[in-house]
Amino acid sequence: MNTTSSTKQDILHCLLKQGRSPAQDIAEILGISPQAVRRHLKDLEEEHLIEYETTQMGVGRPQLLYRVSPSGREQLRHLQQLQEGATPNGFAVELLGAVAATVSPEQMQDILQKAWQQKALDYRKQLGNGPLGDRLAQLVKLRYAEGYMAEYYPVTDAENPNAYLFTEYNCAISSVAQTFPTICEHELEMFAIALEHCQVKRTHWMVDGEHRCGYLISPIN
């Protein structure tokens, strides 16, 4: 990808958050002309960073819905890790592979779980004991520094007062997770430990084919 094109990166980030969108919606979100968006989409498609599907929405011509391709996700993840100085995952995959070759599957599962538990305790120390919104703001910073595109916002739901939705649109350890998919299963447990006195429920999961991972986080009174 031509990294000098901030507009292309903006389009990729927009699609990463939206999941899939037509060119017109991207133009409205970014505040640029649909013609300019379509030119960039054509370039991104040629670079294999996006893909599209055709759908019929009402009468008229079929509409093209664009989404970030697996190569595009990997490119964004790599760029963010470079910007944030995050550690590449190649050595982690090799190290875990060497460990997996010398221990039983049960022992490997225990190792991964203990690693997530330690990560959760490290997060807890850095998040402190302030209001939930403040802790989530700090968690977003920590995760972003690790290569995740994360955000949070309050939930306007009478059934979940004072709750927040914490969302991640990419996976900073995707290469590790592809080799050791059980790693993803521990993320819910990790956030529950890191955010004391909170209930954490998974709402979206990339493993299930969704374009993001999401967690509903509610304080326990």
UniProtKB/TrEMBL annotation:
Residues 16-61 form the HTH crp-type domain. Pfam families: HTH_24 (PF13412). It comes from the Bacteria. Transmembrane segments: none annotated. PANTHER family: SLL0088 PROTEIN, TRANSCRIPTIONAL REGULATORY PROTEIN. This is Iron-sulfur cluster biosynthesis transcriptional regulator SufR. It comes from Candidatus Synechococcus calcipolaris G9.
